[in-house]
């Protein structure tokens, strides 16, 4: 072999190594292989990207052994991380703002939902003569868990009608069969919840929807702008100490989001556990079609979405002062940007 071709070969190897080097750096091993994620209502569409990443082995592919603990609502999932029994929350972005107002720094690092996908409806049996939100005064409203994002949406709807949270009673009903039973048996008069529960009640004529954020248009009407929803967030301390772990978690979620962009209803049915269907496959699929556009595309949290969330919370919670919140510390797109490039999401 001539010196010229040997040099060419050497140059080719060196060039390939130079190209591979950043990729190798980007794929550094996670600092923590075992990660526990707390979630509030895993079977709901709000957290579908998390389920997809788990069921299709995307966390394992990133070198992670992920344990997911399911709670009745996002506020309870958050408590697990605050209490130290879980590392990361799969929950609503606005909790990071709430926490900062209490001097606790948590940071969202990958978005799962670009709209809350929460609907609020009144029971057609308990309130057949319902005319407006003012009729809810003194009524019992079901939410996934007190303090969760379903509670936040209900508070926003009430405040716009001049009602305070104290004008109603909030009751935690979870996100699955228990929520259906609570409304149908008359334990509650209205409900703010997520799908598939709300579509199931709506299709059977059990509720009349009065506020809907399952579409981007509906979200714009309720919040006046884009409203980020489900995401992975953790104490800022955890994110700073475990950047490779956060990158691996983000990669898995964005891989799931990419898969969801082209997945058909039959793909979803084959992938999620049977129990998620709540005994009605057709209604589950009808729910999926309703919330499909609420699912994030690339894991990136929009800056104007963060501002919308702060404005919404401050509108009914006097303890949240807009000028005291540093939104830049409530989320980072650093990990999602890398994952988006990798998966062309």
Automatic annotation (TrEMBL):
InterPro entries: SsuA/THI5, TAT_signal. Its main location: periplasm. It is found in: Periplasm. SUPFAM superfamilies: Periplasmic binding protein-like II (SSF53850). Keywords: Signal. It holds the Pfam family NMT1. Residues 46-260 form the SsuA/THI5-like domain. Belongs to the bacterial solute-binding protein SsuA/TauA family. This is ABC transporter substrate-binding protein. It comes from Ramlibacter terrae.
